[in-house]
Amino acid sequence: MAIRLLLVDDQPMLRLGFRMVFETQPDLEVVGEAGDGSQGVTMTHALNPDVVLMDVRMPVMDGVQATQQIVDSGSAARILLLTTFNLDEYVFSGLRAGASGFLLKEVPPPDLLTGIRAVAAGDAVVAPSVTRRLIDAFAHHLPNPAAARSPGDERLGRLTERERDVLAEVARGRSNGEIAESLTVSEATVKTHVGRILAKLGLRDRVQVVVFAYEAGLVRPGEGRG
């Protein structure tokens, strides 16, 4: 079955360019277009796309607000944020809201297609290490920092000690292979732990794991892959 796409961007020519690329792919189908975030929310509910390509900066309602509303509604649509700038201050808020990642609008078509297919398959487009850099760069933009979760977040109590270890390693941007080597277990075991972490914490993907671990105090700005 084709991956159903909804394009949400206030620039008609950009939507046209994306559509032309997607129409060359037998496994992709554009089911609708929206010119602002509010329309994007409405059309997501009406059309049930698999993936929403969501611009960040739009009139009426920006992509972050639209992402939050779509995710809060319980929609199964995966949201891929599009931004003009490599480190857009709104992107972190979008990831917190439940987006599965972000790409630059100028991304080469093959990378865009790969990203869409990855998101549709349930993966995150933003590599954990890139997400870590976003968090480090824009930590001071977090809204209501006093309300951020503490290390005692009750959801952490749902995890086993080993799952907490894996959670921290994922949040530092390490791959399954690197985690397996560090913890002296198989990659299959790490993959199983990651799946259980996502299920227990109610998170969508590895991007959300990074955000949760940061907000829960398991990792802090400046902690990287060292």
Topology:
Blueprint (H helix, E strand, L loop, with lengths): L2 E6 L3 H11 L5 E7 L2 H11 L3 E5 L7 H10 L5 E6 L5 H9 L3 E4 L4 H12 L7 H11 L22 H11 L4 H8 L3 H15 L4 H10 L11
Parallel strand pairs: 1-2, 1-3, 3-4, 4-5
Structural notes for this entry:
With 226 residues, the chain is α/β, with parallel strands linked by helices. It has helices spanning 12-22, 37-47, 63-72, 89-97, 109-120, 128-138, 161-171, 176-183, 187-201, 206-215; strands at 3-8, 28-34, 51-55, 78-83, 101-104. A five-stranded parallel sheet has the order 2-1-3-4-5, sandwiched between helices. α4 (89-97) links the parallel β4 (78-83) and β5. The longest helix is centred in the C-terminal third of the chain and has 15 residues, at 187-201. It is globular and about 50 Å long. The termini are far apart. Mean pLDDT is 82; it is low at 141-149.
Task: List its salient traits.
5 strands; 226 residues; 10 helices
Helix/sheet category = alpha/beta
How large, in whole angstroms, is the Cα Rg?
18 Å
Number of helices: 10
Main sheet attributes: strand count, strand direction, barrel closure = 5 strands, parallel
> What form results from the Cα inertia axes?
globular
Helix content: 40-55%
Instruction: Sketch the topology as an H/E string, one letter per element.
Output: EHEHEHEHEHHHHHH
Taken as a percent bin, the fraction of beta residues is: 5-15%
Low-pLDDT runs of 5+ residues are: 141-149
Strand order of the largest sheet: 2-1-3-4-5
What is the distance, rounded to the nearest whole angstrom, between the alpha carbons of the first and last residues?
42 Å
Q: Tally of extended strands?
A: 5
Q: Which whole number gives the mean pLDDT? A: 82
